[in-house]
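FORM 7B: Structural annotation worksheet

SECTION A. Query
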Amino acid sequence: MAKWRVKAAEAFGFEPNKYSYAHSKKELFADLAVMALSAADEGDSESLKRISDFVCWACAQTADDLQSVVDLAFFLPLISEQELAGLVLNCFPADLVAGKRHLLLGEDE
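SECTION B. Predicted structure
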């Protein structure tokens, strides 16, 4: 089983095979974006920390497809979201968020 699947199952209590099909990475990170927004709305800092730790880990991996999926399925919707995204993005290192803004939107902060 892929390392990211094992790590996600351990971190979030997902069934190991929940994200095991063709678009599984995209679905996982899209779900994590929704979960992060929900956690921010509820003030659940523990869940936000767990999500940010996992996403930061995924960003540090060398597999290009994993990083691309994180960018498009997780960061792009959050960077585009105005209402709660700031609360979520504040959980990530500022240089990581600035790099994603530059990559995805061409913005410099």
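SECTION C. Observations
The two ends are 38 Å apart (CA to CA). The longest helix spans residues 24-42.

SECTION D. Sign-off
Analyst initials: ____
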